[in-house]
Amino acid sequence: QVQLVESGGGLVQPGGSLTLSCAVSGRPITSAYAMSWYRQEPGSYRQVVARLFNAEDRETQYSSPVKGRFTISKDTVKNTVDLQMNNLQPEDTAIYYCNVDIEGVPYWGQGTQVTVSS
Predict the structure, then answer these.
(1) Within 13 Å and on the Cβ side, how many CA atoms surround 110?
(2) Less CB within 10 Å around the terminal CB: N or C of the chain?
(3) Tens digits of residue pLDDT in 23-52
């Protein structure tokens, strides 16, 4: 059974940085078609912020609000998917969710709260 556990969320001041990590168990992330981070603000839909593909001919994707500030990466030894977030702003406040797509099946973590406030 595939399980995802996110960590690294918390409270940070505007301009600060956080790194979220998603530990994947049950299957190697190399078997995934895509690995993504989503976020959901109160009263809003869950939206993708970054997506990484295992296929070498697929470019990493970022949503416009985070492009240039966030970086998604994978560690195939640790079997994790990370999201480095720099220059955080109050509008980045949300619950962040990890997602992996393995053989057409989406798997989700439980989410981790990120709050950007002075």
Answers:
(1) 7
(2) N
(3) 999 999 999 999 999 999 989 999 999 999
